[in-house]
Amino acid sequence: MNLLKKYSVIPGLVIFITMFFLGCEGNFKDVQRSNFVEFVPASDADNVNIKYTDSGLISGILISPKMLDYSNVSFPFTDFPKGIDVTLYDKKRKRTYVRANYAISYKQTSVIDLQGKVKITTDDGQMLETEQLYFDQKNEWFYTERKFKFTDAKGVSYGQGIDFSKDFKIINSQRINGEIETEE
């Protein structure tokens, strides 16, 4: 008889635990909602055309169909969900063109993350194509660990991992292949 009483408690305990969790589910969802902070941009702009200047000279022009500014969050950033088209000017007025399907600029680090058919060209005919590329605005330096295609007057090369100055004067590439001319 003792054996029957022991096992008759288990179904009652299962029903009690089930009812406890079902009863708490509604409260748990209310707690989740109270902790949810709506993630909305501080500003939203369409068809932007921003000109950056340095000592009275234009140093860059950014054109984008959509810009979302999230300066109201703890790690502020600017989002360009429909891509960007940028023209950078060096001190000798030579241009570097940057195009990407998506970009996000982080204010605290001054790094821009370019994604989706990233293409950079210069007035000298140099061109780099990749799927993701970072631009360090403070150092005016591009870098990626992704696969890339680099074209210039010496030929076409492919590789994975590259970093270079915005004017392509200094280029450091990793795991490169292709036919290129060297000055050696």
TrEMBL record:
Q: InterPro entries per the record?
A: LipoPS_assembly_LptC-rel, LptC
Instruction: Provide GO CC annotations from the record.
Output: plasma membrane
Q: Which organism is it from?
A: Flavobacterium frigoritolerans
Give the protein's recorded name: LPS export ABC transporter periplasmic protein LptC
Membrane-crossing residue ranges in chain numbering: 6-24
UniProt key word Transmembrane: yes
The superkingdom listed in its UniProt entry is Bacteria
Give yes or no: UniProt keyword Acyltransferase: no
The taxonomy runs:
Bacteria, Pseudomonadati, Bacteroidota, Flavobacteriia, Flavobacteriales
